[in-house]
Specification:
EC number: 3.2.1.23
Helix content: 10-25%
CATH superfamily of the largest domain: Glycosidases
Number of domains: 5
GO molecular function: beta-galactosidase activity
Number of helices: 13
Largest sheet: 6 strands, antiparallel
Catalytic activity: Hydrolysis of terminal non-reducing beta-D-galactose residues in beta-D-galactosides
Number of strands: 50
Strand content: 25-35%
Distance between the termini: 82 Å
Protein name: beta-galactosidase
Radius of gyration: 32 Å
Enzyme class: hydrolase
Length: 967
């Protein structure tokens, strides 16, 4: 009997040990959960974990997604700064402040809004064979703080915006039915990362409450692989693998670890040999094993061109215990040499966009690889190779997808420590950023795409000392990526220890002088001996696309767009919205082209982070993208067109000006930008100049040459005498790298070299004087050059560059106009070749010109040249208009057009074209106006003026203020 009992006991032990063999077991917790809002913060004291909650919700998801929370009112307590309070006071917007018709202009409007504690509860049945195993609760991403109870026992509290919340429930769960309660609190509490941080703010993803991604209970062996980190050594064809093994049992453990790697996503395949090592872990202890994993001659490296990846298999084995972990990684080294980034020793220029957590259907980030692949492939199709995540870190799926697609990522600590919190002053955010970036490195550090790290965005406080220490900490801790302090504007102090600079100050377009493509940023980056990456370039606005409104079928509604659309209709221009979109869009693309090209021709420039390829849905509604917030095209530029000036290889032309007379010679120096996998060998670069009909006026080839990676590489010069151009013409220079898809082009304009004289049939005047009235009453023709005389519209400032970011966030800081809509088919432009939008020849006409407010003109009145106002005001504007007045006909221009205008060739030519039109039979204005309504433009101010009720302003307007000083 004793022997029988001994055998039974032995079998029981062996059976128990055998349960630790094989794959981990998982209980998926997706689906229905009990739910209840803890509006008065009474759930803990009331022991809600001990009773059934009264409501239901589905997870993964958020409260807003299932219409849990509060209706939107003017008293909604948003998470995010509002710098333009005029919405709450402007009489014209009163109807949007009424219950049932609330239209918030600052950001997208969620279906419901709630900030506070909420409880989520689920009953699970724990199987008997989980006894003795380590059981963990995995919450992939929550927002923000979680507390967990099993039945009536509290397990703990976690707060992370960047990584899964993982709880060890082994000591709390027993066989059978168990209740798990999770309290989630999305309030900003002691740890304040800043209300505008994209990790939490209503400006972007929204301050949601819920759980997304993987939600599961996992049963694993009590001796388990806690962490695996892979450190590639490309030069020596090996990887250092650091494996952390934990023993949660009360017995010492001895066993072996076996590792090997195999490629999985490339045409070529590679596999390492197995590496075996013994391991011992003391009871309730931890052991870290470091192993070298050699690669053979067939080792595959990862970069943007060939993103070859490996799976590392790690197996822990002993009698009765088996654990396994699979890790994705790439063999790559992302390093710095002087002012260059290197990928596997090859110089690389970063062409990036900023991702701000724009997810308008869900209000929270995607957690599937497929969703991120779609975003990344779109980004890459526009010639980009880099993504910065502004003050947030995406879920793991984003890194997996970037590895596969081939993009260099800069996630950031989840903080914009400004507008409230500050760094370096001992506030909780100081330690939190170390904790969060440590979690990021552990969770995502193996992914090849994770090449850069910033602590966050634009801080305040004792920032230099804090960020120097932060960078030094990470340089010593993990060499797999490069580190900067925070991503900042040009007025922020330099952090000397940063390995690269992500900062403004050396960016933008100086378009207050004759436009050219010869200058570069060399002087601006000269003080920096490390790579300089331009922070948030662009920010050029485009008019809203109201067709986008119907896309908002999820958590958010585009109430801001709805308001802007109604305002446009109220100002009698609703039928022009699509034209405004396209015309402003063409100017926006022109601006991005010129700024990007300026960086590409600057030797030593390291890269840019555009803001952005896609729109930003908050901060007043910043429509700065050529893609909308859904990463979809708006219709005025394609990826193929955009990638002509933004790509791994871009032909460039240094052109001194874009408007000529036919007595001059067009000259250009051709240079090349190249950031490829390898040099362009024996490349032939050709050029062609054509007119608008496609007739080739001149062409040529440069001698074959090998071009290494670099910016502004000299190719050669070309010239064309313009004497044969007899009429006003638009010409086009195109430069190609033969036998490739790389090509780029530039328009330029040639006008006859003629003196401007006033036609005797036209009365030219600078004031609407008595003579002008007499001429009009007698049926004559008058040209009124009203430049400098405008009163109605004087408050509207027009530059050639469009609105920056948006006029709400910057308190109506100029410029206020975002391009012009031009009636290109009008015979008024027969002698002035133009499209329907601002192009470079319009600069000397448009830049800093006054505009006229046509608020009292007939509803159907459309000017020949119509500046497009900021969508926050939607004033009906004109630069040039025509009308019948009395028996006569009139053209009024608030641009300086006339015979005395000098050194403005386009202005002279436009005046000539308008005169020719006035002297033709086709001069027959549609609208008849009274002299009084025209006269009023020069007498009465606009009826609706923007009044700034806000007493504060964003830091960008006051970089030297107390916001950036240490108290």
């Amino acid at each position: 009997m004793k022997k029988l009992n001994y055998v039974c006991l032995l079998l029981a032990i062996l059976f128990s040990l055998s349960s630790f063999k094989g794959k981990d077991e998982v209980i998926n917790l997706d689906g229905n959960w009990h739910f209840e809002i803890d509006r008065n913060n009474e759930g803990i004291a009331g022991k809600w974990y001990n009773r059934n909650l009264s409501d239901n919700i589905k997870l993964p998801g958020s409260m807003a997604e299932f219409l849990k929370g509060d209706e939107i009112t003017l008293k909604t307590k948003w998470t995010g700064s509002i710098y333009d309070s005029s919405f709450y006071f402007r009489p014209s917007l009163k109807k949007y402040r009424q219950p049932g018709n609330i239209h918030i202009p600052f950001w997208l409007t969620p279906a419901k809004h709630y900030v506070g504690a909420a409880w989520y509860q689920k009953e699970v049945t724990i199987p008997s064979n989980w006894k003795g195993k380590r059981i963990i609760l995995h919450l992939e991403r929550t927002h923000i703080e979680t507390r967990v109870w099993v039945n009536d026992k509290e397990v703990g509290l976690q707060n992370s915006l960047v990584a899964p919340h993982v709880y060890d429930l082994s000591a709390y769960l027993t066989e059978g039915k168990q209740r798990i309660s999770i309290r989630i609190d999305n309030r900003i509490k002691e740890i304040n990362v800043g209300p505008d941080s994209h990790s939490i703010t209503d400006h972007t993803q929204g301050n949601w409450n819920g759980i997304i991604g993987k939600i599961a209970l996992e049963a694993i062996a009590p001796v388990y692989i806690d962490d695996v980190q892979v450190y590639p050594d490309v030069r020596n064809r090996k990887a250092r693998v650091k494996i952390t093994v934990n023993n949660s049992t009360k017995n010492n453990f001895t066993g072996k670890i076996v590792i090997w790697a195999k490629s999985f996503n490339s045409k070529s395949s590679d596999q390492t040999k197995e590496i075996v090592s013994k391991i011992a872990v003391s009871k309730s202890g931890t052991n870290i094993v470091e192993l070298d994993l050699p690669f053979g001659e067939g080792m595959l490296t990862w970069d943007e061109f060939n993103p070859a990846l490996y799976h590392l298999d790690v197996n822990l084995d002993a009698k009765g215990i088996s654990a396994h972990k699979k890790v994705q990684f790439g063999m790559r080294e992302f390093k710095i040499n002087g002012n260059q980034f290197l990928i596997n020793g090859n110089p690389v220029f970063l062409r990036g966009t900023v991702h701000n957590c724009e997810f308008p259907l869900t209000g929270y980030p995607a957690t599937t690889v497929e969703a991120w692949e779609e975003i990344y492939k779109k980004i890459k199709s526009y010639g980009l190779n880099h993504v910065r995540f502004h003050s947030w870190c995406p879920p793991e799926a984003a890194f997996i997808a970037a590895d596969k697609v081939g993009l260099y990522l800069q996630p950031e600590g989840p903080s914009w420590p400004n507008h409230g919190p500050k760094i370096g002053l001992g506030q909780p955010v100081d330690q939190y950023l170390y904790d969060e970036t440590t979690r990021m490195a552990k969770e995502y550090g193996n992914y090849a795409s994770f090449t850069m790290l910033s602590a966050g965005n634009e801080p305040a406080g004792n920032q230099v000392k804090y960020l120097n220490a932060f960078v030094d900490f990470w340089k010593a801790k993990d060499n797999r990526r490069v580190y900067t302090g925070m991503s900042v504007g040009g007025s922020w102090p330099v952090v000397p220890n940063a390995e690269y600079q992500s900062r403004g100050g050396v960016r933008g377009l100086n378009w207050n002088k004759v436009l050219e493509t010869e200058s570069d940023f060399s002087a601006g980056i000269a003080p920096f001996k490390v790579p300089f990456v331009a922070h948030e370039i662009g920010q050029y606005c485009v008019f809203p696309n109201f067709e986008e409104i119907k896309k908002y079928t999820g958590v958010y509604r585009a109430k801001n767009f709805e308001m802007f659309r109604q305002e446009l209709e109220d100002h009698k221009m609703g039928d022009q919205s699509k034209d405004f979109l396209n015309a402003s869009g063409k100017l926006q693309v022109l601006c991005y082209k010129n700024e990007i090209e300026k960086m590409l021709r600057t030797p030593g420039y390291a890269g840019f982070q555009a803001l952005g390829l896609q729109d930003f849905p908050g901060q007043g509604t910043a429509l700065v993208g050529v893609l909308d917030a859904f990463f979809q095209e708006k219709g005025y530029v394609t990826a193929k067109e955009y990638s002509r000036f933004c790509n791994e290889t871009v032909p460039l032309a240094k052109i001194p000006k874009f408007v000529y007379n036919n007595g001059e010679t067009f000259k250009a120096e051709i240079v090349l930008f190249h950031s490829g996998k390898e040099a362009l060998k024996n490349a032939v670069i050709s050029w062609t100049i054509k007119d608008e009909k496609g007739v080739v006026l001149a062409s040529g080839n440069f001698d074959p040459k090998t071009y290494e990676n670099g910016n502004g590489i000299v190719v050669g010069n070309l010239s064309l005498a313009l004497t044969d151009i007899k009429v006003a013409s638009k010409l086009n220079l195109e430069v190609k790298v033969n036998n490739t898809d790389f090509a780029n082009d530039w328009n330029f304009w040639v006008y006859p070299n003629e003196n401007v004289k006033v036609s005797p049939e036209i009365y030219y005047t600078k004031v609407l004087d008595e003579k002008a009235k007499v001429v009009l009453n007698k049926g004559g023709k008058v040209f009124l050059n009203a430049s400098g005389k405008v009163v109605k519209g004087k408050e509207v400032e027009m530059h050639f560059l469009p609105v920056f970011w948006n006029t709400s966030w910057f308190k109506m800081r100029p410029p206020h106009v975002t391009g012009m809509l031009i009636q290109e088919k009008s015979p008024a432009f027969t002698s002035f070749p133009t499209s329907y939008h601002s192009d470079l020849q319009w600069w000397d006409i448009q830049n800093r010109a006054q505009v006229m407010n046509l608020e009292d003109f007939p509803a159907d009145f459309r000017p020949l040249i119509q500046p497009i106002d900021t969508w926050f005001m939607n004033r009906r504007l004109a630069l040039v208009f025509e009308a019948q007045v009395g028996k006569g006909k009139l053209i009024v221009s608030s641009a300086d057009l006339g015979p005395e205008v000098q050194n403005k060739p386009a202005s002279k030519q436009l005046f000539t074209s308008l005169q020719n039109y006035m002297n033709s039979k086709e001069f027959n204005p549609k609208n008849k106006l009274s002299i009084e309504v025209i006269q009023d433009i020069f007498m009465s101010p606009s009826k609706e003026q923007f009044e700034n009720y806000t007493k504060d302003s964003p830091d960008e307007l006051k970089p030297n203020s107390n916001q950036n000083k240490v108290n």
